[in-house]
Amino acid sequence: MSEQLQFTFDVNGENFTSAGEASVATKKNLRMLGYPPDIIRRVAIAMYEGEINMVIHAGGGFATVTVYPDKIEIILKDNGPGIADVALAMKEGFSTAPENIRSLGFGAGMGLPNMKKNTDTMTIESELGVGTTITMTVNT
Amino acid sequence: MAQYNHSVSLNPEKCCGCTHCLRHCPTEAIRIRDRRAVIDSARCIDCGECIRVCPHQAKKSVYDSLTDIPKDKFKIALPAPTLFGQFDNLEDIDYVLQGLLDYGFDEVFEVARAAEIVSDYTRRMIKTAKKPVISSACPVIERLLSLRYPLLTDNLLDILPPMEIAAKYAKREVLKNHPELSEDDICTVFISPCPAKVSYVKNKDAGERSYVDYVVSMSDVYFELLGVMKGDSLSPVPVSRTGMIGLSWASTGGEATALFNEKYLAADGIENVVRVLEEIDNGSFPELEFVELDACPGGCVGGVMTVTNPFIAKARLQNLRRYLPVAENHADDGDGVPDELKNQFTYNYAPQTIGSSRAEAMRIMIESEELKKQLPGIDCGSCGAPTCAAFAQDVASGNANLSECVVIMREKFKDLYKEEGENGK
Fold it and tell me: What is the predicted pLDDT for the residue at B425?
């Protein structure tokens, strides 16, 4: 296929309650494309966690999902504060989420590890004060 | 997968092609074609939402008529607990049970009794089951899971719904008490609050037939009962054998609270249910042990085949159960759930995909993403599709024409008008 299928979502950082909507929309699209349920679930979880992160830490951003013949690629791009120590951030249980977010049940420090776990590749490019771009792929 | 038999149908004479059902269908199964609603059978989950919102009573439930029940058979009525909440000033359930006998049933077996047995077994098996356990009582949820959340079908409670167990036990009891009867002489009649139960019975796989023979509408039975329950209802003969738990199953949270386990979630109304399932499917709430989901608002009391407002019915049931024992029916001793009460159903994953192949689906989706940019995005429904996105997909898959969009046509018309005006000058 020469043309590629791409969905872009504006993840609204001002409305915490709408976080996760891009993940639901992507799930619906992948279902209609006939992907098996386990692939859909992995993409949905990785994307959901990423979306939540963008809303909690970066005031929102953009999520782009591209469907390739052999893989699904998710790019999450924000202009937030950046991640100071990526290796530390990848540790399970490490979290910088504020208390009000934790009281909602988020911020357990499982977001990034969960994204890593559910995808086949994941790269983080982050610069302090500039923003973070996370690229994940799930092989299909 | 065999053709699925639905129990929601349309009366084309009453349908005027308005967009009420279109907007409320949770699976976007409805389109308006030639000013009539058309239901896509592969997407419909029999939730009854379109019946609820149709202002012209054009959508209706399909169920057995009371006159379909053969008169010469030994007829067992299986009233859902919701039935008892329909009556005003009812002092005791026994009056309803007597009414069913007076109407012509030979025996009554309360479905609430089977519900209490299911609660007992659920408490027992939840310790070892895959969590969260999802209730199998509402057939809409079962179908929704198999269409959209196939990975969660493993979490469905592996016990038959109370209706099925009641039918099984009732037949067994009657055969024992009436040795002169054979199984062919008996029939079971479920008095249902919703069309989804009708679908459940109609779609049982061939190898495993339902023990329910007829499913009738609660509202039909209600009006018949009003006739026979008046008059000399001094002392009803049958005595209800239902406790608090059995009656509580009629409304949301009843099944869940009966487990005496606070790690539960209970949600009702199909839109809420879908939102909850999305979250659970994403692995949220790892601490949950039991999930009760009811498609109808308020639970079974909100079914479209009932007559009373669901909240009033719930309040009446609370009053009726006030002095009842916690439960009157219990599971057999021993470990686990007996095989005969287990759900043998296999779930076929049948998602609603677009196109016959991945390549075609990709083409349709790319095209519809492009088309979406031309559409107004106001989801007015005038084209016959529930949303502009759905319309774009219908156009891309060749099932609709872009000129059916009234907003696009209006713009075209304006341009034309302007052009003609300029030419005329």
Answer: 55
**Residue B234 has what pLDDT?**
65
Residues of A whose CB is below 8 A from B150? 37
Domain boundaries B66-130+158-253+301-341, CATH class: alpha beta
Closest chain A residue to the Cα of B364, Cα to Cα: A33
Interface of B with A (CB under 8 A): 148-151, 278, 281-283, 349, 351-354, 358-359, 361-363, 365-366, 369, 393
pLDDT tens for residues A18-53?
788 899 899 989 988 989 989 999 999 999 999 989
Query: Is the confidence at residue A107, as pLDDT, over 90?
Result: no
- Write the residue in A3, A31, A38 that is nearest to B148 by C-beta: A31
Cβ separation B278–A67 shorter than 8 A = no
For domain A5-139, give the fold: Heat Shock Protein 90 (3.30.565)
Task: Tell me whether residues B361 and A33 touch, CB distance under 8 A.
Answer: yes
- Chain B partners of A7 at a C-beta cutoff of 8 Å? 369
Distance CA(B305)–CA(B294), nearest Å, equals: 15
Tell me the backbone φ, ψ of residue A37, rounded to 5 degrees. Answer: -60, -35
DSSP A62-113: EEEEEE-SSEEEEEEEE-SS--S-HHHHTSTT-----HHHHTTT--SS-HHH
SS3 B138: coil
From CA B322, how far away is CA B221, in angstroms rounded?
25
Secondary structure element (H or E) that encloses residue B226, with its range: helix B218-229
Residue B279, phi then psi, degrees to nearest 5: -70, -45
Any CB–CB contact under 8 A between A98 and chain B? Answer: no
CA distance B353 to chain A (A): 4
Domain B1-62 in CATH 3.30.70.20? The answer is yes
Residue B100 host element (H or E) = helix B93-103
**CA nearest to A42 within chain B:** B282
Homologous superfamily of B357-425 in CATH?
A: Electron transport complex subunit B, putative Fe-S cluster (1.10.15.40)
Residue B347 burial class via C-beta count within 10 angstroms: exposed 0-12, middle 13-18, buried 19 and up: middle
For chain B, the residue count is 425
pLDDT value, residue A18 = 75
Domain ranges in chain A are 5-139
3-state secondary structure of B310: helix
For chain B, domain boundaries = 1-62, 66-130+158-253+301-341, 357-425
Q: Do B358 and A38 touch (CB under 8 A)?
A: no
Predicted confidence at residue B322, as pLDDT, reads 86
Mean pLDDT of chain A, nearest integer? 89
Closest residue in chain B to residue A28, using alpha carbons only = B148
The string of pLDDT tens digits covering residues A53-84 is 999 889 989 999 999 989 999 999 999 999 99
Query: With an 8 Å Cβ cutoff, are A41 and B151 in contact?
Result: yes
Interface predicted TM-score of the whole assembly (ipTM), two decimals:
0.71
Of A20, A32, A38, the CB nearest to B151: A38
The pLDDT, as a whole number, for residue A101 is 79
Q: What is the pLDDT of residues B76-103, one digit of tens each?
A: 999 999 999 999 989 889 999 999 999 9
Q: Name every chain A residue with its beta carbon within 8 A of the beta carbon of B151.
A: 37-38, 41
**Average pLDDT of chain B, as a whole number:** 91
What is residue A73's predicted lDDT score, i.e. its pLDDT?
96
Cβ-Cβ contacts under 8 Å, B283 against chain A:
45
